[in-house]
Amino acid sequence: MSSVAHAEGHDHKPEGFLDRWLFTTNHKDIGTLYLVFSLTMFIIGGAMAMVIRAELFMPGMQLVDPAFFNQMTTMHALIMVFGAVMPAFVGLANWMIPMMVGAPDMALPRMNNWSFWILPFAFTMLLSTLFMDGGAPAAGWTLYPPLVLQGGNSFAFAIFAVHLLGISSIMGAINIIATILNMRAPGMNLLNMPLFVWTWLITAFLLIAVMPVLAGGVTMLLTDKFFGTSFFNAAGGGDPVMYQHIFWFFGHPEVYIMILPAFGVVSEILPTFSRKPLFGYTSMVYASASIAFLSFIVWSHHMFTVGMPLGGELFFMYATMVIAVPTGVKIFNWVATMWKGAMTFETPMLFAVGFVIMFTIGGFSGLMLAIAPADFQYHDTYFVVAHFHYVLVTGAVYAIMAGVYYWLPKWTGHMYDERLGKIHFWWSTIAVNVLFFPQHFLGLAGMPRRIPDYSVQFAEFNMISSIGGFAFGLAQIFFVYIVWKTVKGGKPAEARAWEGAKGLEWTVPSPAPHHTFETPPEIKPDMIAHPSNAH
Amino acid sequence: MKNLKMMAALGLLLASTGAWAEYGLNMTPGVTEFSQIAYGLHMKILWICVAIGVLVFGVMIYSMIAHRKSKGAQPAQFSHSTTAEIVWTIIPILILVYMAYPATKALITMEAPRDKADLIVKVTGFQWRWRYDYLNEDVSFISSLDAESNRVRQLKSGEDPSQVKDYLLNVDHPLVLPVGKQVKFLLTADDVIHSWWVPALGWKRDAIPGFVNEAWTKIEKPGIYRGQCAELCGRDHGFMPIVIKAVTPEEFEAWVAEQKKSAVAGRVQPIADQS
Ligand SMILES: [Cu+2]
Ligand SMILES: [Cu+2]
Predict the structure, then answer these.
(1) Across all residues in chain A, what is the average pLDDT?
(2) Are residues B164 and B261 in the same domain?
(3) Whole-number Å distance between alpha carbons of B272 and B210
(4) Kind and range of the H or E element at B48?
(5) Whole-angstrom Cα distance, residue A420 to residue B33?
(6) Dihedral sign for Cα atoms in the order A408, A409, A412, A417
């Protein structure tokens, strides 16, 4: 199609709106679609969190019926996990992976279009259950039977939505693997790839391995509910605990699906703003791979209280604790990357450093939760809620924000407003700690999770937490404004938007032309993101 | 500068946590061997994490202060050190082993097979109450949220929960248990999965329809111990508390005798009639 060399300002963007966005096969446009979709879901899921925090603002039931409260906690989680965090990382992958490995586009562009356009339909279906008879699923995002089977017929819509999300994720993962393995420019061998590409390659394999398991699990729920099977019904010879094994065999790798790409983003940003090569590139790759492997053999740490034999408890406790080793290697490597650098603290760096500190706090509480005899106390309390919000909000979401600020100049051709970005970081960081840190105390003091009302002894910390929640929510509206402002205008960005930035994506102009690397670039040593490894 | 301010704020926070101790900041040691084991492990691992955190964040914060471009720092170019990487793989492994040893011992203690129970209580969870059967005593009853909490917790009741004694943590019929006796619980459920949790005993255990889970306790001190259902079990999951009244064995005998006397009145109705 384009053997003709590109003239400046003429880069074959389709003209019509539908042609440009609905029928697009361009990795950059699809990346944008993913990111905009993710931001929309982040706001919707955030609004649900606001409902939750408003009801929990003080003891007593003031706003919503407990049944609706349960729909909110369930939908908040489903939307944030499948609608906000995962699509955001796929969006980053779409935008950046082809540019980072010197490919003209994703390997399977039409499938790329399809895997995105499934999402709006899936979430329309999932969200529409809120307005149906029986309401949205209300058994928690884990959808444990028998409780989840007590819902109305709207349950079928939720299950089909999950199926669609799984199809979308698997297609996205296939595309990413095919791109990375087949489309690298000559000279971009596997151990020259940026870490973001590596962590996504591993994540894609995790997705292909576990999304079918989830699909199988929820299909069994569907047949139990509508076709009279008894997979999980003890009265019919089934086993409700089997569902938990199936779910968490998906669910634990799922948490690494949400955090490995975050590790990748942070591993790109810290070297740039430290002006120093990433420390221990090879061990970062091996650590990611071992985390991925271990993630398959720890699932029952979510089930210590279902009644397991001693041997099972010991195995899952040890396996979970072992994950601390490769995770520790990563954290130490990041610190060593910063050590003796020449650091500046632009917004992406602030979010990346915030990620390292607060993700580590979430890692500590994760280690505590791994200790089975103590987990008999922690399990299903607000301590767990605090733990996974530290790793998912100040972990995954912070890495996404860091990545957005980092690559926004490349996407839009404009520098974002640095002052506003810094305000956004400090505002979010103070608010998020006011929001989640007291939840550790609530859990240890005995407050179970997923309750709409609580004993008055928990009143103070819940109020503090809610105030932090509202402030954090507001900060993200501010974030939307910053992004919008950057899209509309701002200081023109150079090709290499950051002084210390290395890697192929910074060799193309900002904004990146609609088509990049139609002929493979010649990889020179200074184009490699982490040249440390080039022995 | 910002980092210094942040550190000062963090210091203040840590200092003030001591003062907050009475307001339910931490796990409590509880009143059983198991709860003390859980508490001891919790504190031990918490302090190890705090120590590692202080070390790692300390190095990071120092680096962020000292190695800034604005201070004229020249970036070093080192990118790996096999020695360093081996050291920070081995040391965490040693720390983990140090943690795993007491954790393993604790698990073995908690899961050790016990032959003789002084009392067996069957606990059945159902939406949204608990039913207790004293298996060898022919005493059973259903324990529900107390009427006052139940009135106040209704949506837009307009009443002030702080005026209710033990709001949401009170029941009509507490589970009466003797102190100093081995009590064996058999836990199950009638409809969906629940989880029976009294923090002072040191564990929670799921009550699963079609399964019978086993758990043990020996309460050391008389008193009232409160807990809640810990597994999301539907609309009123937040409103099925648990209250244990731990009494001396003599008082317990008297209580059982009294229950048997009023057995006809106290006899539990079939669950179907209750909901
Ligand atoms: Cu897990
Ligand atoms: Cu329950």
Answers:
(1) 93
(2) yes
(3) 17
(4) helix B33-66
(5) 54
(6) positive
Contacting residues of A for B207, CB less than 8 Å apart: none
- The closest of A49, A271, A47, A90 to A176, measured between CA atoms, is A90
Q: Which of A277, A372, A456 sits opposite B103 (nearest CB)?
A: A372
Dist. CA B78 → ligand 2 center (Å): 56
- Residue B107 CB neighbours (<10 A): 21
Give this complex's ipTM: 0.90
Q: What is the separation of C-alpha A484 from the centre of its chain, rounded to a whole number of angstroms?
A: 22
Q: Considering Cα of A441, then A444, then A445, then A448, what sign does the dihedral take?
A: positive
Shared domain for B105 and B232, answered yes or no, is no
- Angle, CA B102 vertex, CA B97 and CA B107 arms, to 5°: 115
- Please give the helix or strand (H or E) that residue B175 lies within, else none: strand B175-178
Query: Would you place residue B271 in the very low, low, confident or very high pLDDT band (cuts 50, 70, 90)?
Result: very low
Q: Which of B25, B106, B197 sits opposite A445 (nearest CB)?
A: B25
**Residue B229's CATH number:** 2.60.40.420
Range of the domain at B244: 119-265
pLDDT at B138: 86
pTM of the model: 0.93
Statement to judge: residues B45 and B172 lie in one domain: no
**A296–chain B nearest CA distance, Å:** 20
Query: Which pLDDT tens digit goes with each residue over A419-457?
Result: 999 999 999 999 999 999 999 999 999 999 999 999 999
